[in-house]
Amino acid sequence: xxxxxxxxxxxxxxxxxxxxxxxxxxxxxxxxxxxxxxxxxxxxxxxxxxxxxxxxxxxxxxxxxxxxxxxxxxxxxxxxxxxxxxxxxxxxxxxxxxxxxxxxxxxxxxxxxxxxxxxxxxxxxxxxxxxxxxxxxxxxxxxxxxxxxxxxxxxxxxxxxxxxxxxxxxxxxxxxxxxxxxxxxxxxxxxxxxxxxxxxxxxxxxxxxxxxxxxxxxxxxxxxxxxxxxxxxxxxxxxxxxxxxxxxxxxxxxxxxxxxxxxxxxxxxxxxxxxxxxxxxxxxxxxxxxxxxxxxxxxxxxxxxxxxxxxxxxxxxxxxxxxxxxxxxxxxxxxxxxxxxxxxxxxxxxxxxxxxxxxxxxxxxxxxxxxxxxxxxxxxxxxxxxxxxxxxxxxxxxxxxxxxxxxxxxxxxxxxxxxxxxxxxxxxxxxxxxxxxxxxxxxxxxxxxxxxxxxxxxxxxxxxxxxxxxxxxxxxxxxxxxxxxxxxxxxxxxxxxxxxxxxxxxxxxxxxxxxxxxxxxxxxxxxxxxxxxxxxxxxxxxxxxxxxxxxxxxxxxxxxxxxxxxxxxxxxxxxxxxxxxxxxxxxxxxxxxxxxxxxxxxxxxxxxxxxxxxxxxxxxxxxxxxxxxxxxxxxxxxxxxxxxxxxxxxxxxxxxxxxxxxxxxxxxxxxxxxxxxxxxxxxxxxxxxxxxxxxxxxx
Length: 699
Known about the structure:
The protein contains 28 helices and 20 strands. The chain is globular.
């Protein structure tokens, strides 16, 4: 406690009220070592007093009164939100937690810094072997939070996070890498000292008295990534160590570079001017790799002090080093507008889709593409023509049929390159988006707009599907949907999903934005709390679970009664009238009917499976099926096979035969009306001479 107090007094000028608030906030802090270390890191980062107090209040679980500064209260309330991933959580639930955390953090950038330093401290104290929870936390930090730090320009923090992740997730790799680097340490230090002396001579000749020279060792995680992604050996990594020269002015950077090249030979292709062409996160510096006295490459970085602040503090640099006036706070907000844009454009994505999109936006580099009129748009690497179309406008994307890239016609999936000029071709006769487009686009904006199209176009259907899924979830828990799905329990104030009506909730479940299991569990829990004496027995069986009644109208369109719900057959198993079936609620495509023994069911989300039955009163319609026939190879077999099929009254929609050694594999596509027709045909085919095996495709 005394250490925290000393840190605060040393770094902030406190009023009497500030001192009183600080004393009250710190009274109940339990883990003072952890707290003091994180406070020290936040102070070194130059975060303001309000941020530090809010963090301390979070650690002590302090409750502010209504008179506290709103700035402190805002940060505190965001930190206090329970964003904890625990063992046993499903991927969906973990994704929900991360999504909520990002929504909260995007409201105040200081919360991002606090969260990142809290994570850094926690993982720095992990010991091997790690638990399952710790492993999942490390994976999330490696894949999401470290890239977030990099995108914000917090390069040192990012590297430290990644180093601990590598050390704990791949301990053998980290140990081997550490040993290899240490073997070169003495030789590297000797060369650094020699080159430092020469750089100092250059600075003296140029009269740059305030210039500073510093050395840095490349982080193990960065070395490992280079080895893994570029297939390079440690001997070929030229920036293993580097020297930095800090000067006052931009022109001095170029003057120093010229003098260095007059002494040392630069490596071809290893001179990079990030001053003229900054990195997407704002990083600026001159990089050159020279051949040093030991005949080994050595990287030298030259930048101004202002550029160095930006490299250390990223988008926070100007906010931290200048008074917060003249719109500097709003300028900081602008620099992370991309994060808010991701959050805004991801509203229609499921939490798991959001995580995938977030990883893409954080981990990929940026490219800049122009419209024919010269407007420049920024995208992540890998963005396609279709991403560009949706960046212009939703309607441009929905009616897009192609594009001209640099004057040449290109398909929708064409990946864009830095500097491309793109003109979108639209047509009012376009059928609009298809689900396959979601596999083409990579930006959250495009995915959200495509999903939104399906979400609104099929809203009524999604409501019916969502209600059906919710009833199924309630039945699975042994409750009667009639008792649970009442206005009392469906009051939207019980849910924190921003739904105004129960229909919106049902639609979100049907579309997949919200988990039916999570909602049904919450509703059943509320009912249980009101009826503690009741005992419930699971009624999850084929006789009582909610079912879709499959009917066909005169046009052969599958509907659920008269609801108009879109129902279609799965192509993988082609269910036939009379056999056991099950429905899968697909996002934006109604219900897909599978056979109950379809092997692909194990790859689907189980909570989106619903029971389905045939209506025996409806005359069945022909369905195409595929039959596989294995026979010994003989002349005239296909002629005999064809004759038997046609004589039995079956149509031949397709027939393909391949000879493999002494066996012939034949694929027959035909039409049947009911399950008995398949059994009858298989029995007929088995009686043909030379036939060894007959079975239905998918079995």
